[in-house]
Design brief:
- This protein has 6 helices and 12 strands.
- The chain is of the alpha+beta class.
- The protein has a 12-stranded antiparallel β-sheet, sandwiched between helices.
- Helix 1 runs antiparallel to helix 5.
Amino acid sequence: MSFSVREAEGLWRVSAGAAQAGELVDLLVAVANDAVAVVSLETNSYLDEDWHPLQPALIAAELGVPCTVHPLGSWASGTNGLPEELLVMDRDLLPRFLDGTWSPYELTLIDVSADVTPEQLDELALVLGTTGVDEPLLGLLGDSRVWFSGHDDCYVMLETRDAALPAAILARLLSLLAGSALAELTEEPCVRVPEPDIQLPEQLIETAPHWIGALSHVTEDLVAIGLAALPDPWRLGTPFPQADLTATLDVRDGTWRITPKE
């Protein structure tokens, strides 16, 4: 598990792993405007007879999710991260779209107003296509409240205007890691575990902005996750250092606690 957050001018940017888009969708919907634009989508879950990926609109149709298709002009052709078309759907339909039956290995979402115009969607695409990966994004996009980018179906980057979302993401990451460990131990396809009270991830973020976590002890009654603060955001290949803290889930009573590493 990895988590990093930075704040600048009322925007919070998070990078994290590991979580699938569908495992975070309720958190995104909770802070989004009335509609969500699917900006880019790559998946091997939906292929045509020639083994080419289906267009996002056809995937939405397969899933029974109504949406509006906005084609981009020739100006967007070849621009990194921009497809031939955007999908716009009601935000409450996003959980049906990301229903867990398929896997997007690249996915970019951003919320928009329900009455967004074609001109505004073109402007949105232009900003997304010309803004650097480390540059603040939402400050250029008016009223959008959350931008999400998922890679390899586990690495997450997002930007938000909602100050509470980073802690909610960290709480979800802890519960996902504990749940996956219990599922492997019990040989169940999935296990639901409670999330820590929000004060726990808030305490971690107040202590340090960059964390990495690894399982240290797993039984059917107890899951312990060693947590180490890093000086910089975690990068693939960074070894796990000595843990500073331990986050422990008591499975029986459903409570979490943080203690110093012994």
